[in-house]
Amino acid sequence: MSLPAWDDVQPLALDTAPVPAYGAGSLADLLPTLVAHQGVDGFTPVIPELAPADRNCVFLIDGLGWEQLKAHPDEAPFLSSLLRSSLGGTGRPLTAGFPATTATSLASVGTGLPPGAHGLPGYTVRDPGTGALMNQLRWNPWTDPHAWQPYPTVFQRAHDAGVHTAQVSSPTFEHTPLTKVALSGGTFRGRLSGEDRMDLAAQQLAAGDRSLVYTYYAEVDGKGHRFGVDSDAWRGQLMYVDRLAQRLAEQLPPRSALYVTADHGMIDIPFDERSRIDFDEDWELRAGVALLGGEGRARHVYAVPGAQNDVLTVWREVLGEQFWVASRDEAIEAGWFGPHIDQRVYGRLGDIIAAAHDDAAIIATEREPNESALVGMHGSMTPVEQLVPLLEVRS
User: Fold this and answer.
1) Distance between CA atoms of 359 and 269, rounded to whole angstroms?
2) What is the pLDDT of residues 377-394, one digit of tens each?
3) b/e map of 60-91 (b: 16 or more CB within 10 Å)?
4) Cα–Cα distance for residue pair 102/176, rounded to 1 Å
5) Do the beta carbons of residue 217 and residue 58 sit within 8 Å?
6) Dist CA 108 CA 38 (whole Å)
7) Mean of the pLDDT values across residues 35-61?
8) pLDDT for 3 beyond 80
């Protein structure tokens, strides 16, 4: 079979990309709605479907997307029984935000801001001050956290307003820069086991007349990356976290609401050349590119000065049937990163941004060998990555 000529390729129209529901039903809207109901000044309840509660607990399960949960009722009977409760009883999911990746989503949850404002718009992005790539999950190379993300978290503002506020997570996260810029405020309680986290989260929820508690579990995502989202290892983690959620729900003190959500979903990418496009082996994609940022399904591409238009043209020709490929300004205009972009964030965004539509990824086997070997990936705006649950239990 002969390949089509470039003139025959019809790139995906940018207006077909399903932009996250910023300001109405995204992860960034959750905490502002909860604390507005608790009487914290400066916030409004932007998710109108959520009813007030004096005590709110958010349990974030890394990597458990809406589509994955719906597909595995046998492994997650408790969580599946709550699907109709999602988003205030509408049975609908939230959207994660773009890109659908952990650092971006956790910053959106904790600050109540979309990526264009909080400024963590991807897995790796260029630091305009140094010209180097900055890994916003591992915080490498070191960058002043509060210069990178200067806004106070919702947790901090709630704590200052007299709400009892706590984060219950792995002790390894207590002093990380990502925790400082996204999840700090009130008290951090480190516990290693999932069971201990659930028990302590319930205790912290009961510790105030008004409480805001956040707890987190990571290994659903970890097993999905390594083995895939339908592997036995992933299913085992889903079964375990289902029991954790039920354990926490059964301990809720009076006047409480528990919300179970996630930072993104995940998709398994086949190991073939069409599905895994190797940037390091493709001279057309490399031409004119100074830095490759982001991750396989949500790429920030930084062009050599003066080459932006040429790189955009080539990327659309090569990838335009599998990816939404936009210039920086087109992505901003389309609202991919939220309704506005802070000036300090503008230069962090790629000159060209490529978001996967098909079951494909732009890997880089030489510069990103570990990431390129992952089975499960995420980052783009497809439903399997973008939609996350907001399951609710009340006492």
Assistant:
1) 6
2) 999 999 999 999 999 999
3) bbbbbbbbbbeebeebbebbbebbebbbbeee
4) 14
5) no
6) 20
7) 97
8) no
Q: Residue 39: what pLDDT?
A: 97
Please indicate, yes or no, whether the overall pTM of this predicted structure exceeds 0.90: yes
Q: What is the model's pLDDT at position 9? A: 58
Q: Give mean pLDDT, residues 171-191.
A: 95
Are the C-beta atoms of 389 and 94 separated by less than 8 Å? Answer: yes
Which residues on neighbouring strands pair with residue 261, listed in sequence order? 60
Question: 367: which 2 tokens?
Answer: 């510069």
Q: What is the mean pLDDT of the segment spanning 304-327?
A: 97
Give CA angle at 58 (54, 59), nearest 5°: 145
Burial 9-35 (b: 16+ CB within 10 A, else e): eebbebeebebbbbeebbbbbbbbbbb
pLDDT at 325 over 50: yes
Distance of CA 110 to the CA centre of its chain: 12
3-state secondary structure the chain: CCCCCHHHCCCCCHHHCCCCCCCCCEHHHHHHHHHHHCCCCCCCCCCCCCCCCCEEEEEEECCCCHHHHHCCCCCCHHHHHCHHHHHHHCCCCEECCCCCCHHHHHHHHHHCCCHHHHCCCCCEEECCCCCCEEECCCCECCCCHHHHCCCCCHHHHHHHCCCEEEEEECHHHCCCHHHHHHCCCCEEEECCCHHHHHHHHHHHHHCCCCEEEEEEECHHHHHHHHHCCCCHHHHHHHHHHHHHHHHHHCCCCCCEEEEEECCCCCEECCCCCCCEEEHHHCHHHHCCEEEEEEECCEEEEEECCCCHHHHHHHHHHHHCCCEEEEEHHHHHHHCCCCCCCCHHHHCCCCCEEEEECCCCEEECCCCCHHHHCCCEECCCCCHHHHEECCEEEEC
Chain Cα centroid distance, residue 303: 26
pLDDT the model gives residue 8: 54
Distance CA 247, CA 338 (A): 36
